[in-house]
Amino acid sequence: MDRIQITGGQQLNGTIPISGAKNAALPLLIASLLTDDRLTLKNVPNLADVNLLVRILRNHGVDLAVDGKRTGPIQHLGETFHLTARDVVDTTAPYEMVSRMRASFWVLGPLIARMGVAKVSLPGGCAIGTRPVDLHLMGLKALGAEIDIEGGYVIAKAPKGLRGAHIVFPKVSVGATHNVLLAAALARGETVIENAAREPEIGDVADCLVKMGARIDGIGTSVLRIQGRERLEGAVHTVLPDRIETGTFAFAVAATGGDVLLEGAKATHLKTALDVLAETGARVEETPRGIRVARTDGGIAPVSVETQPFPGFPTDLQAQLMALVTRAGGTSVIRETIFENRFMHVQELARLGADIHLHGDTATIKGVKTLTGAPVMATDLRASVSLVIAGLMAEGMTTINRVYHLDRGFEQLEQKLTRCGALVERIASG
């Protein structure tokens, strides 16, 4: 099993190209099931989660051709995928695949909508709480799907097709919004989704569905109105830049000091996080090429933050912020309101010398003068990258084990950091 070694104490200076957003690429790939025409997606990141989803889609009968990265001035643009689901040959998404990644459960909506039947394993792929799928099933039932759960599988039928409905989610769910939005694009009549998630990735998927022929009003708001179509057409769509990767590198620069341009990043996608970053003492500037982040003098100021659905502070940046404020000049407080069990990185940060106390959903972080390198273990995707940030700040060498978690969501992490002056090395297993 690969591990990463980091020798801390180096400032980051230079340019980091931001990849396409994983959390948009996955549902966009799944959208290919909604049409028998070709869907072309540009700027797809090369990630373990993307590769796993491709295997699942191929199992359903989706044909895929891939164009590699282009050389030229826009280095961050990723691969181009051409997907064609002319014949859906299998409507089952098996346990051995779905159990490794939650987002693969989102094939359920498109399969029911297009084929009238689906058998999809209940999901896994995440250690940060139960994250039930009840809202997904509630929304799809409202659209007319008959749903049973047998042997760990959701078995869904819609022999007469799906029909539009008025759906009010009792709480915000990104996954349920994606699943129902995709299904509603092929449902007869109008679907209204209230309390829909507002994340930019939802908007990106909606924009693509519009290109495919759906009519969607309210994109970017909490109320989506979808006029379903009997069939959708092919389209060409570019995946938006990854705001979580952007925030991760922005926090890393603030942690180490230095001056970095995050090329291709969009400030509107993570305004709250950038505001918090500025509170810690970093300088944040939007430019025509992306976002410039610098901390060239002064220390790190403490902050108090609650995670919230978009446009609030993202739960997917909570661990990275915590790593940054371990060396703040004072006490920071972080409250996690989205996922239970999302403080698994705390004990690993403590191995580096961080002073963190947990009480329920709240972490109190007393800043320390120094962190010291040590062996640590990644527990989930976002937790693992917080250890990278802490390792960059620490004195001496930090070894991060189980880095396959990182490969799920960060493209060329070591290379991007190394090009900016970090001392990071991947040690292959065996």
Beta-strand share of residues: 25-35%
For this structure, what is the CATH homologous superfamily of the largest domain?
Answer: Enolpyruvate transferase domain
Q: What is the level-2 CATH architecture name of the largest domain? A: Alpha-beta prism
Helix content: 25-40%
Structural class: alpha/beta
Q: What is the assembly state of the chains in this entry?
A: single chain
Which descriptor suits the 3D outline?
A: elongated
Q: Give the strand order, joined by hyphens, for the main sheet.
A: 22-23-1-24
Q: What does the average pLDDT come to?
A: 93
CA-CA gap between termini = 8 Å
Q: How many E strands?
A: 24
- Indicate how many domains the architecture comprises: 2
Sheet with the most strands, sense and barrel status? 4 strands, mixed
Radius of gyration over all CA atoms, rounded = 21 Å
Total of DSSP H or I helical runs spanning 4+ residues: 14
Low-confidence stretches: 125-130
CATH structural fold name of the largest domain: UDP-n-acetylglucosamine1-carboxyvinyl-transferase, Chain
CATH class designation of the largest domain: Alpha Beta
Please provide a written account of the structure.
This protein has helices at 22-30, 48-60, 95-98, 108-115, 134-142, 174-184, 200-211, 243-256, 271-279, 318-325, 346-351, 381-393, 404-409, 413-418; strands at residues 3-7, 12-17, 38-44, 63-67, 79-84, 92-93, 117-121, 146-150, 153-157, 166-168, 190-194, 215-217, 223-227, 235-238, 258-263, 283-287, 290-295, 304-306, 331-335, 355-359, 362-366, 375-377, 397-401, 423-427. The chain is of the alpha/beta class and 430 residues long. Residues 125-130 have low confidence and may be disordered.
